[in-house]
Write a structure and sequence with these properties.
It contains 11 helices and 9 strands. The longest helix has 18 residues.
Length: about 260
């Protein structure tokens, strides 16, 4: 039993880390589209082609289920992937709905961090329109953050300066929740937690995504077991150095245990 995880780079490792914690009896294939990372600044048409080609390679390698561990890729290609393949496929979307529900009674606003492309896509606007009846959701594009993450730039001083500059125009007392709307962003959860006021919660969609995966595996009758938590890494650029980077990044996540918040987002 092997579950495939796909992302443009190392961001989806934040979802994989959660899956490893909840499904240690499965094996995993992780594919990073290193030829084309980051997706957030590219055209929708180009990105769809990249995704379909990379997932086709994963299918040839042999997977029993697929997690599209990227909000942008989900928005662009999830429908076509489900039309092409009959195996369980789980996508992601920014955790806007639970954030709005949590904040509805507080009078506080919700701030969504995401890539520029995610924020431009109709699926994102449809999501916000569907769940944000009172107009409390604001969106902040953070195009540079994927580059920082891909460079394994986790220096606290550098990242504090970056986030302070991006948030300079926002009155943080008005906000109750920040949504991390890109799978790369949870790498910075600890840094953000120290930087932000205590009353602001930080949420992402990783736990909810893995719960949906668990439910879908059960629905498809896929038995427990069949693996031992082994992870095989691949990348479209065939770069040995990037394989090492992914291994380092996953070890960083598991050591830091950045995904300790287990609320059902």
């Amino acid at each position: 039993m092997r579950i495939g995880f796909f992302d443009s780079g190392i961001g989806g490792l934040t979802v994989l880390a959660e899956a490893l914690r909840r499904h240690p009896d499965k094996d995993f294939l992780y594919m990073a589209d290193t030829l084309h990372v980051p997706y957030g600044t590219k055209s929708k048409e180009d990105v769809k082609g990249y995704i379909l080609e990379a997932v086709g390679t994963m299918m040839n390698e042999g997977i029993d289920a697929l997690v599209v561990a990227c909000n942008t890729a989900t928005s662009i290609a999830i429908t076509e992937l489900r039309e092409r393949y009959s195996l369980p496929i789980v996508g992601m979307e920014p955790a806007v709905k639970p954030a709005v529900e949590m904040n509805s009674a507080t009078g506080k606003r919700v701030l969504v961090f995401a890539t520029p492309l995610t924020l431009q896509l109709p699926k994102y606007y449809a999501l916000v329109s569907r769940v944000d009846d009172t107009g409390i959701v604001d969106s902040l594009p953070l195009p540079e953050l994927v580059h920082y993450c891909e460079s394994l730039q986790f220096d606290k001083q550098i990242m504090n300066e970056y986030f302070r500059a991006k948030l300079a125009g926002y009155e943080l007392n008005d906000y109750g929740i920040i949504v991390l709307g890109c799978t790369h962003y949870p790498f910075y959860k600890d840094i953000l937690r120290e930087l932000l006021p205590d009353h602001i919660a930080i949420v992402d969609g990783n736990v909810g995504t893995v719960k949906r995966l668990s439910a879908l595996l059960s629905r498809y009758g896929i038995a427990r077991g069949g693996g031992s938590g082994n992870v095989q890494f691949m990348c479209t650029g065939n770069e040995p150095g990037y394989i090492d980077k992914m291994q380092t990044a996953l070890a960083y996540l598991r050591e830091k245990d950045n995904l300790t918040e287990t609320e059902p987002f």
